[in-house]
Automatic annotation (TrEMBL):
InterPro entries assigned to the protein according to its UniProt record, in alphabetical order: Aldolase_TIM, BATS_dom, Elp3/MiaA/NifB-like_rSAM, FeFe-hyd_HydE_rSAM, HydE/PylB-like, rSAM, rSAM_sf
Positions with a binding annotation for (3R)-3-methyl-D-ornithine: S137
Ligand binding (S-adenosyl-L-methionine): E162, R181
Cofactor dependency: [2Fe-2S] cluster; [4Fe-4S] cluster
GO molecular function, one term: transferase activity
Binding positions ([4Fe-4S] cluster): C62, C66, C69
Alphabetically ordered keywords of this record: 4Fe-4S, Iron, Iron-sulfur, Metal-binding, S-adenosyl-L-methionine
Superkingdom of source: Bacteria
Residue span(s) of domain Radical SAM core: 48-263
Lineage summary: Bacteria, Bacillati, Bacillota, Clostridia, Eubacteriales
Pfam families the record matches: Radical_SAM
Protein's GO biological process: sulfur compound biosynthetic process; water-soluble vitamin biosynthetic process
Name of this protein: [FeFe] hydrogenase H-cluster radical SAM maturase HydE
Length: 353
């Protein structure tokens, strides 16, 4: 067990067999050794800094029907909303004042937000805050669409691959294409975005092999960012009675990803904070180095309901800002209010600021 963890630490690599062995046999002692090594690795790459992103959830309309997701098209109970361009700009204004130098514009796959409208939003944010970074998280779109938004000034794109096992992907995403999603990530990279892949831990019927597929896929893709959180059932979906992912399993996976990808930007996700009051802090102690507090107006917060029990739905942006900094400090880390680009990316001078 130690040999595998040491190999992960020293070589940032492990074989399929080693990863399966590790996940199937991890005892408490080895697990804390793994977490120590992940922490050590993050200290060498990013130090004790935790990057902040201001999350703007600007539409919960979605044309997709992912089985796990509370804003899936088929959920007639969802109370739908869209923010106007002005409301989005106001969120950006508030975020900038609170020290968020990256905005994450996230939404369901909503055809209302055409390329023209997205370009307008991106252009206006960049005119007002030229130094701030924009991350998009709008799902699958065409190459041309991604390219137009990039040219308008978007810097990064989050598109979790969700699961790297084709059969599981097909079960969870009726009518969607496994290949297209991966193709989108490659298109985004080709265009010049910093890309974020990612997956859920503890999906119904997910096996150790499936998780190892995810680990090997992100190792090969080497995304600049990787979003990982526990699956949490949502009451208005077909998976409502399933078990959710655990804190322990999610933290273990975060630690392994930190070792496989020492330079990756790794969020301690809201989902992790939602299954345990100090889930995000524990994630940060296991190698995570990003938090994404909410900037959306409070009157729409609870409507962006991907899973049950989501935290921070009642808190003003300023309250989340204060809360998260306190949490990070108490965990022994420092908030960093720069753009927070991937360090490898900065080294290779891929940024044209
Ligand atoms: N539990 C946990 N995470 C979820 N997501 C969507 N639904 C759920 C759920 N029920 C995640 C997906 C998506 C991201 C925005 O939120 O991985 O990519
Ligand atoms: Fe939102 Fe704590 S981060 S209230």
């Amino acid at each position: 067990m130690r040999d595998i963890i040491d190999k992960l630490y020293n070589e940032n690599n492990a074989s399929r067999e080693e990863l399966i062995y590790l996940l199937d046999n991890l005892d408490e002692e080895s697990r804390s050794y793994l977490i120590d090594k992940a922490h050590d690795t993050r200290m060498k790459t990013y130090g004790d800094k935790v990057y902040m992103r201001g999350l703007i959830e600007f539409t919960n309309y979605c044309k997709r029907n992912c089985e796990y997701c509370g804003i899936r098209r088929g959920n007639k109970e969802a109370d739908r909303y869209r923010l106007s361009v002005e409301e989005i700009l106001l969120c950006a204004e508030i975020g900038d004042k609170l020290g968020y130098k990256t905005y994450v514009l996230q939404g369901g796959e909503d055809d209302y937000f055409t390329d023209d409208i997205m370009v307008e939003i991106i252009t206006k944010i960049k005119e007002r805050f030229p130094k701030n970074a924009i991350t998009l998280s709008l799902g699958e779109r065409s190459y041309e669409s991604y390219e137009r938004m990039f040219k308008a000034g978007a810097d990064r794109y989050l598109l979790r691959h969700e699961t790297a096992t084709k059969e599981l992907y097909k079960k969870l995403h009726p009518g969607a294409s496994f290949e297209n999603r991966r193709g989108c990530l490659l298109n985004l990279r080709k265009i010049g975005y910093q890309i974020g892949a990612g997956f859920m831990v503890g999906l119904p019927n997910q096996t150790t092999e499936d998780l190892v597929n995810d680990l090997l896929y992100v190792k090969e893709l080497t995304p600049e960012m990787c979003g990982i959180g526990p699956f949490i059932p949502h009451k208005d979906t077909s998976l409502k009675d399933e078990k959710g992912g655990t804190l322990e399993d999610t933290i273990t996976i975060l630690a392994i990803v930190r070792l496989l990808l020492p330079n990756v930007l790794l969020p301690a996700t809201t989902a992790l904070g939602s299954i345990n009051p100090i889930g995000r802090e524990l994630g940060i102690k296991a190698g995570a180095n990003v938090v994404m507090p909410n900037l959306s107006p409070t009157d729409v917060r609870d409507k962006y309901s991907l899973y049950d029990g989501k935290i921070c739905t009642g808190d003003e942006a300023a309250e989340c800002r204060r809360c998260i900094e306190g949490r990070i400090n108490r965990a022994g880390f420092q908030v960093e209010v720069g753009r927070g680009d991937n360090i490898q990316w900065v080294k290779e001078e891929k940024l044209c600021l």
